[in-house]
Amino acid sequence: MTQAELRLCSLLLQEHFGEIVEKVGNSLLRTGPRPLRLLVGDTGLLPDQVKKALCVLIQHNLVHYEVQPRGSVEYEARSERILRILRYPRYIYTAKTLYGDPGELLVEELLLHGHLPMSCAVARVADRLTETMEDGKTMDYTEVSSTFVRLADTHFIQRCPIVPETPQSAKSLPPPAPALAIAEKDMYVVPRLSLVGKGKRRHSCDEEEEQEHKAKRQKKEGGSSETPPDDGIYWQVNLERFHQHFRDQALVSAVASRMDQTSSEVVRTMLRMSEVTTASGASHTQPLSSNEIFRSLPAGYNIGKQVLDQYLALLADDPLEFVGKSGDSGGGTYTVSILCGELGIPRPETLPSSGFGSRCARIFRLLLRKKHLEQKQVEDFAMIPAKEAKDMLYRMLSENLVSLQEIPKTPDHAPSRTFYLYTVNVMAAARMLLHRCYKSVANLMERRQHEMRENKRLLEKSQRVEAILASMQATGAEAAQLHEVEEMITGPERQQLENLKRNVNKIDASENQVDETIFVLESFIESTMKR
Amino acid sequence: GRGRGRGRGQMTFNVEAVGIGKGDALPPPTLQPSPLFPALERRAAPLPGGEEGEYMLALKQELRRAMRGLPYFIKPGAPRRDIERYSDKYQLSSPVDNAIDWNPDWRRLPRELKIRVRRLRKGRTAPLVPKQHAALDKEETIKKLESLEKKEEEVTSEEEEEKEEEEEGKEEEEEEYDEEEHEEETDYILSYFDNGESFGPDSDDNGDEAVY
């Protein structure tokens, strides 16, 4: 793990779970898997605090445990999973675009709590949706349930591994930690529940006390006196599936920008058909016959069968190889190549341009295409004056975006008789850029926290004023009184708050943006390593 | 290759091949670490705006705010003060003690991690129901015993006891109220008390405001 990754994980844990969890997570990340007592000693925290922190981390799948042969339990932090916290907004937004508000809230609840039983998730989401509805209306559980089932069917959520059934008459002591496991085929099976009910509103002053207390009781943590029907069956978000969706989206938009809207629709259809049949690490989808594709095209597209065949042929012939022809049965079978190579390369291409200028990008693309070039050739092909070309090459060299390859002419490798060729080592460049991205996000987060700390006093004051205003409005104060309270925050202070808000928003948006790049680079590196 | 030290500024390879011609001025040697905030040569590209970006931004901030309020966010204990103050007993924010604020499924966790579950405090914003005296003898004794410990708030045994009560068919209001009763053994409503020393996110009940 690089320092940059460690620092970023640390910041993410601290921001979302507090300092105690951060300390524990840090210790695990830096020194590797260890048992509880070593962890307590290392962090200097109280044993109960460490236990709490571990419970939280395990609940959220950020740490997993393993029983060692000697009987002790070792805990290990999962750094790549911690980094995913950055992407939570993207997952939730995607769920919203695909499945609307119930989908969005279901994914959000599952992310916030790590894992939940279906009954619990559905109840919570129904309550939240009810809050937003008009007075008197409530959200029925069935709608939320059906969205839940759809999410499970398309693999966006999956079941957590379950506790193994232990025989009642276990002769030996129960193990120090359960060995959770789940079969692949069970992962998306939704238990047959009949969840009946409607969402409950949080109490308002008008509601009767009795109803209020009923609602409160329902909301208590684990408050129901009977065990829910799906006890022990927990669900979590399947991040890999979301990643697959993002990749598909990127592919479709790449096709659209390279060809046209219709061909991107064709590719989108093909991808949709193979959503659940493609294994998560596969490089190609399953072959699809053009007849099947024709049948599955969205209703609005009235292209004839022959036109479709033409499009498929065009896509297959394209040098970027988005689509490959894999056979002739059923009118020709085609697969979509999911390799991110095609996507990864355009992205690193644009990065030099943002840091170095468009001419550097030109040189970079040139080197990618031609693989190895001499200094002189670079100048000629890129049509850039020698002096500038030299300067750019050295800068990129110093940043490790390009590297020098020596080709000796003579066995003694004499420098005067050796070719020196510039080349791009794509993997190294990608890794270097990824490292930079982690650093950037960590810096952004620190800056944002700094801004908040600097203005803490002012923020607290404004919160107090808001609270006072709210309570005054609730008790029906006059406009003049409200105005007086508002005046407590002076003009310049308001300005300062505005600035703060603008800056924090900008920083947050940048973090989201960098995370997109992180996703592309990580996928690229991962898929290239698998080849 | 050539011997060391002979001929200043000579490299082991033919510099012309790399493009540094004879007599070209090389950049001056660096004598100090690079500046902390180097001048930007070109401005960064503007952030993509649009509905998607705005929505994700709002989501991100909302998530941050929400996670701070969940029991998974473990707040460090209140710092020990120099002298014990009377108000310590009635502080809203609970110091870290050996109890956990949510109810994990202990079957899924290693046994060594199991600690006491503290019942989550809900209904802070509830308008309080006027007192109703009921026969809570059993509870009161236990309550008194427990209140002897300074940091004691709620224990699982209490929870069980309350469940029993429910089954016995006692009135619902009591349960809601028991929360308040057990905590403070005074007639004063705890949520109205504010010693002004800690005014932070804890006491901000107005959860609708965005925290930046």
Compact description:
Chain A has 531 residues and is mostly helical.
Largest sheet of chain A: 3 strands, antiparallel
- Major sheet strand order of chain B: 1-2
Chain pair with largest interface: A-B, 89 and 72 residues
Number of helices of chain B: 5
| CA distance, first residue to last residue of chain B | 62 Å
Mean pLDDT over the residues of chain A: 79
Strand order of the biggest β-sheet of chain A: 1-3-2
Secondary structure category of chain A:
mainly alpha
Helix-strand sequence of chain B: HHEEHHH
- Poorly predicted regions of chain A: 168-172, 204-225
Taken as a percent bin, the fraction of beta residues of chain B is under 5%
Shape of chain A: globular
Given the C-alpha coordinates, what overall shape of chain B results? elongated
The biggest sheet of chain B amounts to: 2 strands, parallel
Number of domains of chain A: 5
Radius of gyration of chain B: 32 Å
Percent helix range of chain A: 55-70%
Structural class of chain B: mainly alpha
In DSSP terms (H or I, runs of 4 or more residues), the helix count of chain A works out at 22
Mean pLDDT of chain B: 62
Oligomer: heterodimer
